[in-house]
Sequence to fold (928 residues):
Amino acid sequence: MKYVVFSLSLLLNISLIFVLGTRNVLPLPLGSFLSVQEGVWQNAEPVNLDYNASMNFDGLQGNVDVYLDDRLVPHVFAEVENDAYFVQGYLHAKFRLWQMEFQTHAAAGRISEIVGEKAIKFDRNQRRMGMVFAAENALASMQKDAQTISALDAYTAGVNAYISTLNASDLPIEYKLLGYQPEQWTNLKSALFTKQMTQTLAGYDRDFEFTNALKLLGEENFHILYPSLPDSLYPVIANGTVYNQPTIAVDAPASADSLYFKRKDTIQFVEDYKPNPANGSNSWAVSGAKTKSGKPILSNDPHLGLTLPSIWYEIQIKTPAFNSYGVSFPGLPGVVIGFNDSIAFGFTNAGRDVKDYYEVQFRNADKAEYWFDSTWKKTSRRIEKIQVKNGALVNDTVAYTVFGPVVYDKSFKTELSDEKAYALRWVAHDSSNILKMWMLLNRANNYNDFHEAIGHFNVPGQNMIFSSKAGDIALWQQGTFPMRWKDQGLFVMPGSDSSYMWKGYIPNEENPHSVNPVQGFVSSANQRAADSTYPYFIPGSYEVYRPIAINRMLASMNNITALDMQLLQNNNYNVFAEDARPILLKYVKKEGLTAEETKYLDLVTQWNLRNDPGETGPTCFTAWWDSLHATVFNDELLMGKSPMIKPEKFVLLEALERDSSFKFVDNINTPEQENIYQQVTIALKKAAVQLVQLEKENKLQWAKYKNTTVYHLLKNNAMAFAREGLMNGGGNGIINASQHDHGPSWRMVVEMTTPTNAYGVYPGGQSGNPGSRFYDSFIEKWTKGMYYKLWFMESAATDGKKCKWKMSFASK
Amino acid sequence: MKFIVSSIITAALAFAFGLFLPWWSIALAGMLTGFFIPQKLSLSFLSAFLGVFLFWGIMSFFMSYSNDHILAKRISMLVIKRNSPHLIILLTAFLGGITSGVSATTARAFAVLVKK
Fold:
């Protein structure tokens, strides 16, 4: 009996400890996870936590005092500039370590190490895109510049100084959740972070889908559905600007008609993990002539995926060389968007296509040679080793060509043959030191300094906006942009012939720009940079409607205040609907509509054209227009059963404005000829089915339909750490670009008065710890379109006392 | 009396071990008191259970309380899919208690075996 009792008890005991200690039975090892001394309770940060501290580290040359204000924004005062980067690294790690490592693991294709085999495909995609190759090239450039590398070394040392203080119980929650440990930070990780941003902002392309569209629709129809110049284009640089002839002209190869524009086949595989084409931004600067204070005001709101922890970390850095304030990227030294004593700077994405695919012919399945300029040329091969959590090591061989890495071959896309493959030419792979730009921007005093700084930036191409206390405003589209012959790079190019390669880059000085224009403002919102007179072919993924809304408002405004600019950033007026609604209302046939359909029609008719949170009009309008878009285009897009991409919404609108008998209106799958009246009405009927359902779920109101959500970086795996159902307005194509999980990731308004009058807010909080009151503390204000006054401290001696906490750093 | 002392010792050992050992050291604490303090099996279980139940329960409660239950709300959503800080604290206490209690029982049963 005693033996039985002992055995049963022992068995129960072992099972219990096993079950509570492993991830193989329950999703979480609840024993260690809930342990009060080791688990998540240790991350429950007391709401009145005292952040005061005094620390000594090797590697610091002088003293650094960090004043933390009541929003947990650090104001870093360093006696030696590089010490400031050390402390910035320390603070980034202290408040955002998990995110920094996770994002750079993602860039490097190392997520399988953390989450297991479900991420192998993602990791292979990253490796094959050449992300690590790109980061290595970037780091090599950074190492050639003493200023950059010493700053980066200090930053990395600061991150590692924090990591070395950690024990198991101090680890951020996500490490406990996923069961792994942080590793040492490296300069390469910072370089990887820049490539992650590059992928986000200059990684979108439609080469394969366009190639299929060209083959299936023909050249004329292709250009109708995917035009490069919208009728309603309001370019970054005002229409009518006179451009010089290009310094170098590039011509299409003689074989282009047969080899490039007339392909024999379509491409059947689907590209995964495309970045969101809505990644973009608004920015504008108004001159003193248009403001109440007589000083310029600069505004910027970058639109990115909304995440917790936020992509941004607010900081002020004062060194003997400069005093700058703004948001930084956890992972990089310096202020990325912000201002200093003399100037302010911001960015929007250029959206230019700097990513082309070339179809290469391997000699055989070895991928050792490919056909190039009438000979078999050797590839170099990079073996990517992907370590899978609790599992095997996956080796992936990536062949490198003169263009770059072969992303798609049979080993990755089984639709392909042994020989046919696609190599990637991407500016992201070229060596460059983009950190140098921020090193110089943080200390820039005037327009010339700004101009010199941005010349160091190659990718992701940006519209760089500037204003100064001296009264200047400026905007440059800056980046390394290939010179292209017309239509080069829209489609997959032949990889067997060097004449299809890029022949050079547009000289920086020929990039579109505007300095102190007579209209009194500069603005950009991801639209095409220049009108048709710009002498280069500049394809890309461009926004049409936000810039129209912004420019119309700025042109009409005078006596502008910082508050006016805040309100403009939160403007919900729908310029697209202003033009599109009349089309719907003109062609809908009211007779024969059901009571429900009539009701939704009325809601659209009576709508005030604002995507405000409580409106039902935008929901009904959006459903109706999307339904019309699908009704008009899906028959053509689905006919080839090959991957295709939807035409942009301006295409249908402008086509119908020009001509109601637009040829794509007809449904090619029916013998009858449908007209626009029928299609608009059918679209309403289809939309009504969806709207009835939404109404049942109480989701007809725009904010409820949109359900703005700031996801945790682990997305659906950590909804408990997300903020769902934020009741705000805005949307795609609207100045307030808040979509479901995407939108203004930082809103900033800086008035160049003395003292500087600056405001900002982002949808997150300074701490990345879901157990901190600072985790999501800015979200309420952000949702309501409100701002914090940014406290630009001049001197530690006087302002420091008003801060809540102080951290002192000194050398050992 | 022995019961209460046994509980207190288990909790104290669990705390001390937890300073430098992983979470399963609460089992070690239960085993030590279970082995060295002779009680009926059921009392061995209960005293160790109670010791760590209270240790983990009280400690997690105070940590959560000073945190305004910010984290507990999120963790309860994550683990038990409902917003209840108190339930997640109770679960914490229970898991600590049961681990320690069963360990004490095993050790006591073993002690009875080897004494013969």
User: Anything to note?
Assistant: Chain A is about 35% helix and 20% strand. The two ends of chain A are 65 Å apart (CA to CA). The CA atoms of residues 64 and 78 of chain A lie 4 Å apart.
